[in-house]
Amino acid sequence: MSQGSDRPNGEILKRHLSRRELIVRGGSLMGAAIVFGVPGHMLAQGLAVLDVASAGSIRPMLEGAIKTAIAQDLKLDLHAHAEGADTVAQSIVSEALRADVFIPVTAGPMLTVMHAGKAETGEPIARTELVLVYSPKSRFAPQLEAAAGGKANWWEVLQEPGMRIGRGNPAADPGARAILFAMMLAAKKYNQPNLVDKVVGPTLNPEQIIPGVQAGLQSGAIDVSASYKIGVGSSKLPYITLPKEINLSSLNVHTENPEISLSIGGRTYLPDPLVYYAGLLKGAANPVGASAFLSWLRGAEAQALFLQHQFDAPGEASAIHA
To answer: Phi and psi at residue 259, in whole multiples of 5°?
Structure first.
C-alpha cells in the first residue's frame, strides 16, 4: 500500500500508466507537467518515466543507486512497484499491474509472466544467497552468535525449545520458500530426516508466518529469520552464513537435488538459485527506455553498483525464454 492511499499499488500504477500513455501519445512534455505536477528541474532534464515491477528485495536498489544512475545516464525517471515476486507476476498476468520492466528473483515468477505471453526473455543481472539473521536482543543470541562463528551447529541451535522463527508466506514470495528449501537441503546434508518438522513445522505454519518480521527481529520479539544476504547491510542485524549446498546460490541446486520439491496450493515448486532476472514486458508504455535500461543493467556500471551493494554477479546463469 502506498502512503496516504487505501488503493492497492497495482491499481495506482495502472491508473498512472493510462494517463502517461495519453501523454506519450500526445507528445506533449508540458502536458505531462500539468497532469503529474512534474517539478521544474525534472522537466528541464527531460526525464522519461520508466515503470519497473520487481521483487521487494531489490526495491532499495531501484529507488536508490539505480534510480540515481539512470536518471543521469539514460534520462529515465524510474518508478518502482515491489512486492513478493509471485504476487507481482500474477498482477502483471491479470493486467492489474502494468509496467515496462519486470525484475523478479528466481526464474519461477518470470516464467509465470512468459507463459502468459507478457514477456519473451529474462536476462540474469545479479545473484544473492540465503543467510539467517538473528536478533541481538534474543535470549538465544549467545548460541546464535556461536553458530555464526562456527562454534556451534546452526541447525541444532534452531531446534532450541522456545526459539521464535519468523518467515513470510511461501505461496506468494520466493524468499519465503527459500528457508523451506534450505531446511530440506540441510536435512539431506546433515542426515537429519526430521529437521524440517523440528525447525519450521508445517509449510504454512501460522506460528511462523507473521507480519512485521523485520520489526520483530529489531525488537527481539522474533529470534531468527531468513534473509537474502543483500538485505543484511541495511538492517545492521548479525547473521549466520550457510554452506553453498544450502544457501541457494548454486546454479545447479535443482539438478543436484532432483528429489527436493515443495507443494503449496496445488502448485509444485523446485529449488531455484537466487538469481535476479530482468525482462521487457509486452505492451510497455516506454519500450525504448526499457530496452536501454535492460542493456544498462548488464553493463559495467550497473554490475559495479550491484557489487557495492552486496549482490553477486550472475555468473554463468543463462537467459530464460518463453
So the answer is: -85, -10
Query: What SS3 state is found at 156?
Result: helix
Per-residue confidence in pLDDT tens, the chain, 322 aa: 333 333 334 433 443 444 344 334 333 333 333 333 444 444 435 799 999 999 999 999 999 999 999 999 999 999 999 999 999 999 999 999 999 999 999 999 999 999 999 999 999 999 999 999 999 999 999 999 999 999 999 999 999 999 999 999 999 889 999 999 999 999 999 999 999 999 999 999 999 999 899 999 999 999 999 999 998 877 789 999 999 999 999 999 999 999 999 999 999 999 999 999 999 999 999 999 999 999 999 999 999 999 999 999 999 999 999 8
Place of cell 507476476: 89
d(CA 175, CA 104): 11
Q: How far apart are CA 117 and CA 247, in angstroms?
A: 32
- Contact at 8 Å (CB) between 133 and 239? yes
Neighbours of 3 (CB within 10 A): 4
pTM of the model: 0.83
- CA dihedral in degrees (152, 157, 161, 167; nearest 10)? 160
Phi, psi dihedral angles at 157 (to 5 degrees): -60, -40
Pull the grid cell for residue 27. Answer: 507528445
**Residues 5-8: contacts with CB under 8 Å, at least 24 apart:** 8/96
* C-alpha neighbours within 13 Å on the C-beta side of residue 320: 24
Q: Which element (helix H / strand E) includes 147?
A: helix 141-148
